[in-house]
Amino acid sequence: MIIQRVVLNSRPGKNGNPVAENFRVEEFSLPDALNEGQVQVRTLYLSVDPYMRCKMNEDTGTDYLAPWQLAQVADGGGIGVVEESKHQKLTKGDFVTSFYWPWQTKAILDGNGLEKVDPQLVDGHLSYFLGAIGMPGLTSLIGVQEKGHISAGSNQTMVVSGAAGACGSLAGQIGHLLGCSRVVGICGTQEKCLFLTSELGFDAAVNYKTGNVAEQLREACPGGVDVYFDNVGGDISNAVISQMNENSHIILCGQISQYSNDVPYPPPLPPAVEAIRKERNITRERFTVLNYKDKFEPGILQLSQWFKEGKLKVKETMAKGLENMGVAFQSMMTGGNVGKQIVCISEDSSL
Fold first, then answer.
1. Is 9 annotated as a binding-site member?
2. So where does substrate get bound?
């Protein structure tokens, strides 16, 4: 069977910005027969995420991410439907997901590496398993729970950078749900600012591309900052940290502004900002959601419940077609998405 797949065509270089041309589509032949334990799947949706920038380097800089190899198929979060099965627990028509889904129209995968999902948890929106009811949702929820130290009724202010992205848009809402009295988002367009305040319930939004970020933050957070959900790093984070209160907490989710720079993770703070952090006893600990696998199942159920109750609003930016994986990735890395960036590979007619 001839299928299409996306391979890594070139590396952007350690300090280069990724472009769509770093990827290419090619035809590939799948084996005709399945081995015991394997399933053939048709890909429905694929995810592009900031962490993938690290996988484009020969050395990802982290021990839990393997680099993509040149001329080899790329992979990431994906969801699809089983078309044929030689696995005991999976049958034709089952919907399955994996963090290591190859960027292919169809694939033959080891059934043990797949997780069956229930469409009812997402009211039939299967792509949500790659966003709000999936890894970004868990990252936001567990990050806020484990590193935010929020206690309801204690009048805490939370700031979220990259607030209109996959994790940021959820983290701000979760901050409110868990008891923050004020949530402020930082993003890069007026349209995104309006989206945060009018649709997601953020109390205020700061556009870092217009005006002085520090001044806008002072106005939006008159009582200082108690919890900072950091998706971006760099100058924006320095401005936030400078306004954080004593004994406050940074949730170190991502550093998208630094992923194309050859620096260690998490990147060190400038000396003046690091001095503020130490003086005010601000925690800034590395957060890796994969260390909390025991919390995944209850986390997914909590996120699903909030979504069904209308308390957690979900936003996606959807591209179509495998040939647009590189375009979608480049756009996501430069803030072109609102909410989770997804690529629809094929529609499913059985839903």
1. no
2. 99-100, 288-290
